[in-house]
Design a protein that fits this description.
By secondary structure, the protein is an alpha+beta fold. The chain has nine helices and 14 strands.
Length: 450
């Protein structure tokens, strides 16, 4: 189906309009030329008959005007055949063809020079329109002159023109179909580079390629080069943003580590109360650094063309890490992630979100943790569940706030779910908490599918 604002549709419609206009104009001109040609042929034939009749007029001695012979065309002898001739004198018709039967042609009043031929259109014996050629003949041995006329039914001309027009319409119709088909093929071939360009951009968006490759027409080559340069520039900006985020983290965490060491020395010197207060502030600063750096990294890498990450390998890697970390807990993991489920985004962001959710499940689970995924309407929903104590419904919304903690005995910073929420929002996704079928907490993370 072609969209209304499609370039192909515009080209096809424009070409079809011009083809039909051109063929209609050509058809009108050809029909007019053919009619004029047939009319000239009829008049030429009438002129020949006219000359034969004029040559047959004689007035021997002082006798009456006679017609030595009549035209040989048999149509002049068939009544009302549409072919007629007539010779008029001063008092009206003197001779006329048998085809006129007992009717005389009423020639219009006219003044003709000797030998000149005039053309008229008059009504025939049955009311049909006639084309008439007329000339004046003066005999050398007789006073005065005579009007000689030959006529034919205009229906002959109309019938010939109509037959030609029908044939012309069919021929031009076939030509129009052939031309439209040729234009459609030409448009398809001409727009093929644009289809390749669109397919290349889609491949970049899906992460199958990093650049537009292959030759393109000179008209689109500058666009391809600019797009590749933009992609390269975007990669450089993302890499620079990640580097700067890492540099910032290192630059902040190193002084914090030094401060933490100094705080330990204060504790050794007996300032345990001051040391504890400073150690708490240092821990808060580290939490805030981790939280805001995660947001900054995600914002830098958001909507990077071509970013696509399979979910199953990331979940498997996180599973292996957590299994080693919580080896003394004897946790059981049930992982059901289809291999074709792909996240449209950066791998580090995906692993940040899944890592926080799965680590949070491990902290609260008694024995079982489940990770599943389903795809719907171009989006993925990854569900992490545990069989822990869960959260009351009224506390589930508050759990996503930065620093929210419900049990100080469980290790953590209270920022994990907040980071997941903010990263999901940056990708136009969401996270929802609920009650798990295992008895604990269920986290539904919805993200764009690749």
């Amino acid at each position: 189906m072609i969209a209304v604002n499609s370039l192909r549709l515009r080209l096809l419609v424009g070409a079809v309009i011009w083809i039909f206009l051109a063929l209609a104009a050509a058809g009108a001109v050809l029909a007019a030329l053919f009619r004029a040609h047939v009319e000239r042929r009829l008049e030429t034939e009438l002129a020949i008959q006219l000359e034969q009749i004029a040559a047959a007029l004689e007035r021997p001695g002082a006798g009456d005007l006679i017609l030595t012979h009549q035209p040989s065309d048999p149509r002049f002898r068939k009544p009302y055949s549409g072919f007629y001739w007539q010779v008029d004198g001063v008092d009206g018709a003197i001779f006329r063809s048998r085809s006129l039967w007992d009717v005389a042609l009423h020639l219009p009043r006219d003044t003709l020079p000797d030998g000149g031929v005039h053309r008229h259109r008059i009504l025939g014996p049955e009311g049909q329109r006639l084309i008439v050629l007329e000339r004046t003949v003066a005999l050398a041995d007789a006073a005065g002159s005579y009007r000689v006329a030959a006529a034919t039914d205009e229906a002959e001309l109309v019938a010939a023109a109509a037959a030609f027009t029908r044939t012309l319409v069919v021929s031009l119709g076939v030509l129009a179909i052939a031309l439209v088909a040729a234009v459609a093929i030409q448009v398809q071939v001409g727009l093929k580079p644009l289809h390749r360009l669109r397919a290349g951009v889609a491949a970049i968006r899906q992460g199958r390629v990093k650049r537009l490759e292959g030759p393109f027409p000179t008209e689109t080559q500058p666009l391809v080069e600019d797009l590749n340069a933009l992609l390269q520039r975007n990669e450089e900006i993302v890499a620079r943003g990640r580097t700067q985020a890492g540099t910032l983290a290192h630059g902040l965490k190193t002084p914090l580590t030094i401060l933490a060491n100094e705080v330990d020395r204060l504790a050794e010197d007996g300032a345990s109360q001051l040391s504890a207060a400073m150690r708490g502030q240092i821990a808060t600063m580290r939490q805030q650094i981790d939280y805001h750096l995660a947001r900054a990294r995600a914002a830098v890498s958001l909507d990077v063309p071509g970013a696509r990450v399979p979910i199953a390998p990331s979940v498997a890697a996180i599973h292996r890490t957590l299994a080693r970390l919580y080896i003394d807990r004897d946790l059981q993991f049930a992982i059901d992630i289809p291999l074709d489920h792909v996240f449209r985004g950066e791998q580090q962001d995906l692993e940040e979100m899944l890592g926080n959710l799965m680590d949070n499940a491990c902290k609260w689970a008694k024995h079982r943790i489940a990770a599943t995924s389903r795809r719907h309407d171009g989006r993925l929903t990854i569900t992490i569940e545990d069989d822990g104590p869960g959260l009351p419904h009224e506390k589930q919304g508050h759990a996503l706030a930065p620093g929210a903690r419900f049990d100080e005995n469980v290790p953590g910073t209270g920022l994990g779910l907040a980071i997941v929420r903010d990263l999901a929002i940056l990708y136009s996704g969401s996270i929802e908490l609920g009650s798990s079928s295992l008895g604990g907490l269920r986290a539904d993370l919805t993200l764009p599918a690749g």
